[in-house]
Amino acid sequence: MQEDKNLVHVAHDLIQKLSPRTGNVRSTFFKDCLYEVFDDLECKMEHAGKHLLRSVLQLMESGALVLTTNFDNLLEIYAAHQGTKLESLDLTDEKKVLEWAQEKRRLSVLHIHGVYTNPSGIVLHPAGYQNVLRNTEVMREIQKLYETKSFVFLGCGRTVDDTTFQALFWRRSNTSRTWSTSCW
């Protein structure tokens, strides 16, 4: 295996190798693994994490756009407990992504790799993003946002190095952006 191979690609390869020989990487095995890892995260959430979630929710209520490479839905769960419904979006629903980019779905979290509660929307290989990346209307709207808006990006460490994130937001433009990352 190459040293610099993207970890998301490694996960995709593992799921294919560990899944039943149906050729379908969205097998029950995959769904079961996702739920085993992510289900019941709310019980494991630390008190300090709730303060961060509250801050992000307040930013969203003030108009901030939120996107993440994370598969979890902790922000959505936290918001529901606060009486606010947040929608989880993934890149497989181009219409909703377009509406998010046009700021018509203000209280939505864009999960660029998908969210565990919708295993069919999880993408672990760049080929899975081809439809949205080829959709010029969606890409134009996302690029317009990139040039004019600020985002709250939930991820960890070097997740802005993610190839999908870069394809969506780091197209060459006349504007210069600085990214600040922190883990949570």
UniProtKB/TrEMBL annotation:
InterPro entries: FAM118. It comes from the Eukaryota. Transmembrane segments: none annotated. Keywords: Acetylation, Nucleus, Phosphoprotein. It is found in: Nucleus, Nuclear body. One of its GO terms (cellular component) is nuclear body. Its main location: nucleus. Signal peptide: none annotated. The keyword Transport does not apply. May play a role in Cajal bodies formation. PANTHER family: PROTEIN FAM118B. Belongs to the FAM118 family. This is Protein FAM118B.
